[in-house]
What does this fold into?
Amino acid sequence: MAIITKEVEPEQQQQQQQPTTHSQIPPTTKPRNPKPSSSPTHPPSTTNNNNAFSFWFYFTLSVSLFTLFFVFTFSLSPQDPKTWFLALPTPLRQHYSNGRTIKVQTRPNEAPIEVFTVEEGPTSSENVVIVHGQGLSSYSYHELAKSIASKGVHVVSIDLPGHGFSDKSVEVSVEGVNGVLGRFWYVYGEIQEKGIFWAFDQIVETGEIPYEEIQARMSKRKVRKTIDLGPQQMGRVLGEVIDSMGLAPVHLVLHDSALGLSASFVSERAELVRSVTLMDTASSTVGVFPVWVLEVPVVRDVVLGVSLVYAKVVGLCCSRTVGGADADALRVLLKGRDGRKAVVNVGKRVNSSFDLAEWGEGLKGVPMQVVWSAGWSEEWSREGNRVASALPRATFVTHSGGRWAQVRSRFVIVLFLS
It folds into this structure.
């Protein structure tokens, strides 16, 4: 019997000898034309968002740093009175040379305040005293005062404390420094007064830090405080100026918010007042100039730093006919020597709840007239009607100018005085 066996081929025998497992990795072959591998990319929208965020972040940071630098540099501007005066426009320096200052005591424990006044016309005739509103000064009425004086009337224009050439700050004594912030501002004031290298010079000269001198100065020192007077103090200032110059009885011309600052004087010392003329004075005694633009950082620096911007603000709220030179002169007076801070302080103290009708009832024996701008706006004309209703005994006259002092009003004032 024959047995037939099948011979296994060598390749099959080799495969049978190798045990197969699940972990065995099959051989790989290298492709003939491999494709280059590309790195993973982000979606285009994510990249654009990151670029936009980076741009606005650095842009905002740059603007913030520039603003802080501008404000800090503006705060370090020299406040030396002589330097400030020499930098004034020529018309303002001439206006100052034509006037004089009067010292007025407002508070018992404080130094007297210097009040600036300007006179026009013969002193032997009727006396007219012009009192300005907020943000203004005696310079605002220099043309009006000259026009009235040309009719043989003695005119005196006053810069209320905190305005124009009058004092905008007073020197007060304080004791000690409160907290870390107080010490910081004290050191800042020392640097402004003596220079940044003062302490270093003392170390070089004496070999030690002037600690005891600094402590002594901090314990009791004198600082300049921005004027913050209310209607009562302003009325007292007006009365002392009239007494010192021997003007009583006077014809008072009160413009804008001047009524809110002078009403107490008129009521308490009516014997010194011969007549009262109200020029565009609202029943709420709120001034026409927007004081808030002098409070907001950066905005106030732009308004007071750029003459065109300030003139635009005046044209929008006050008068469309104010000349560029006159507007720029008012801007300069507000900008220097703490003028901005003083005007803001005084503006906050104006009595906005003033009752015009009640005030008028207490002045039955005083002649009164109201001079009103009829062409400014319909709302302002309606306000004029409310003022006329509150003061029924007053003569109501309109003019065609804006809400600031107008030369054309002098004819009405002179006719009323006659």
Remarks:
- Residues 1-26, 72-78 have pLDDT under 50 and may be disordered.
- The first helix runs from residue 10 to 17.
- The chain is about 45% helix and 15% strand.
- The beta strands are 99-104, 113-120, 127-131, 154-159, 169-175, 220-226, 250-255, 273-279, 368-373, 395-399.
